[in-house]
Amino acid sequence: MAGFRSLARQVRDPRCDLALRRYSLRKCLERFAPYGHRATWDHLCSRAGFGPEDRSPDPARLVAALDELEEARSVWLAYEDAFAERRRKEKHDGLRRPGSVDDWHRLTWGGCGVAWCDDHRVHPHEPLAEVLRRLIAALEREPGAVCPVCSGDRLTWKYDLAHEPSSGPVCTDCGIVVPRPVLTPEALAESRRGRLLVSV
Predict the structure, then answer these.
(1) What is the mean pLDDT of residues 42-66?
(2) pTM (whole model) above 0.70
(3) Considering only CA atoms, which of 115, 167, 171, 113 is closest in space to residue 144?
(4) What are the distances in angstroms from CA 165 to CA 52, 75, 86, 107, 155?
(5) For 177, which of 47, 104, 126, 187 is 20 to 30 Å away at the CA?
C-alpha cells in the first residue's frame, strides 16, 4: 500500500496518466483528511478550482490542491511530534493519566477527522493549514465559548455523527465538529440546549 509521499509524487509526475494523478490525490486523503475524506475532497476541489466529479482536471490544479494538503499535513505532523514529546515528558515525570485533549487526540491520530465535517458540503473556506493552526492554538490554551476555527458562536449538539465521537458540538457556521476540550463546560451545555433533534 502506497504511503502519502509516494502518492504525492504520482500526483506531481507529468509522466503519469491524468486519471492516475487524480486517483493518487484522492488516495492521499485516505492517509490525511482533516475534515474527513469527502469534505476534504470537496474543500480541495473548490479551492483549486475544479469539480469534485471532474475526471480530467487541469494538472496544475491537482498540484495546487496537493500543495494545500501537504502544507496542512506538515502543520499536523509538527503538532503530533510536539504532542508525543510532551506525553513522553509527562510519563517520565510520573503523570500517567491522560487529559481530555489526549483523549480527543487518540481519535484523530494521523490527522483524519481532526476537524470533522459531517456534512461534506459545509466546511471552512480558509486554507487547511490555517484551519489546523487555529485548532491547535485552541487546544493549547484555556477552553473558550466559540468555534476555534471561525469564532462562530452558533454551536449545536448533534447525534449520529459519522465519526468518533458519535455526538458533539457542531459549528453551524463552518461545519466542523468542535473538539470538546476547546470549549468551556458552559459552552458545551449551551450547545446541548440548542441541539437539533434530527441530524442534518
Answers:
(1) 96
(2) yes
(3) 171
(4) 27, 23, 24, 8, 16
(5) 47
